[in-house]
Amino acid sequence: MRSAELLRNSFIFQGLTEAQIGELTTICAEWDYPKGATVFLEGDRARGFYLVASGLVKIFKLAFDGKEQILHIFGPGEVFGEVPVFVGGNYPANAVTLEASRIVFFPKDEFLSLIGREPQIALNMLADMSLRLKRFTHLIENLSLKEVPSRLAAYILFLLEDKRGEAEVRLQISKGHLASVLGTIPETLSRIFNRLTSEGVIEVKGRNIVVLNRARLEQIAAGL
Amino acid sequence: MRSAELLRNSFIFQGLTEAQIGELTTICAEWDYPKGATVFLEGDRARGFYLVASGLVKIFKLAFDGKEQILHIFGPGEVFGEVPVFVGGNYPANAVTLEASRIVFFPKDEFLSLIGREPQIALNMLADMSLRLKRFTHLIENLSLKEVPSRLAAYILFLLEDKRGEAEVRLQISKGHLASVLGTIPETLSRIFNRLTSEGVIEVKGRNIVVLNRARLEQIAAGL
DNA sequence: CGGGTACTTGACAATGGTCAAGTGTGGTGG
DNA sequence: CCACCACACTTGACCATTGTCAAGTACCCG
Lengths: 224, 224
Fold this sequence. Notes:
The structure is a homodimer of 224-residue chains. With 224 residues, the first copy, chain A, is an alpha+beta fold. Chain A has helices spanning 2-9, 18-27, 83-86, 108-117, 119-145, 148-162, 175-181, 186-198, 214-222; strands at residues 29-33, 38-40, 48-54, 57-62, 68-74, 79-80, 94-97, 101-107, 168-170, 202-205, 208-211. In chain A, the strands form 3 sheets. Chain A has a 4-stranded antiparallel β-sheet. In chain A, strands 2-7-4-5 form a 4-stranded antiparallel β-sheet. Chain A has a 3-stranded antiparallel β-sheet with strand order 9-11-10. The interface between A and B is large, with 46 and 46 residues. The structure holds a DNA duplex (30 and 30 nucleotides).
């Protein structure tokens, strides 16, 4: 079965024994979602949580006027919707696919009983949630203490981190979604891209961004 | 020893056996902090996490210009500083006492080995972190999608929740700190208190707030 | 009673959001 | 293969909310 391979490579189930992986595969289910499909909505009763096998999923909050704030974008190997497994029982945000996606579902009750028997899974889940809390901490810091240009600069620098040496990065999401990730709107984002370009800090070609002046970009990310 | 009693009543260690509580008391240490004392700073290497025995502690992020965003305010029975126990290893934010406080410390390594043996502690910790994630989700929603009056209204309504029937609440923190909790500054908060008062929605007497028009306050919290 | 901190108030500036009208651009069907 | 349509993105004019700076007032603690 393909799932076993997938589970072994996911952050949350890494380091488990074959027996543990085997147990997991017996309780999970795999589904396909087309692009733009709703996995769950805020307030929905939660029967379990999810793992992205392939594709891309956005987790977001919606304002009454329709503006959205993206909390996370998850790709292959990442889990989402675990909060209501442990507290509450309703999803605290919305989940919608950004691409056609294959998603694995783990039912709450079976998973909880498994976690009671296998401390390693609990520890992995704790690490996963800790990371999530840390990221939220950054998001809050950005939204509350930094201006949009700083947030964008920090985002570009973050994309650059992996690509050692290179100066060009490619956005894996649309600029509209990026605006929503950064807590702003497409118009504002567009103007800031414009500003950074005319100041010679970056060059934008569609979804590709070339960093021309990294030092300056780092200044901007720091808030001047 | 007084700690055992304290642990039993804390959210994170509730439902543990006497033996488990006993184990915990052997690894923890208790310290007193005066008002305004630093428990840890962002970036500090973490040797463990903390439980508030008495007093009040603020967890916050600091901007380069000195503005602060409070992430949590923790009182008796609540834990903080657990994130780096499971990931990273450095505290992601600052912790300073708002009052003279008695705080219990749990060293990371001993706690991790304990958690491996006692799944119930892991489950409690998972519930604690899930709740934390849920609250962050609200904070992000507020900062990104709501204006300051909505945030204040929601905060007052939150304080009102416990007090069934009553219409008067008391802030347990200063208005300056409240501003920092709501992601704004004292001047702005002051003006909004003013506005709500002149509109007859609330009445403010020092730290006491009387809700005169709850329906209107709920409208404001919803974003009109 | 005094001093410092917390809070308030005013005038102003600026960031960023709103509304409206373009300008691409990619994908689909003829 | 091209035309067209929808959608993503851009640009402009405007404005609302909120932050900045500077005083002034009130209040609490010693």
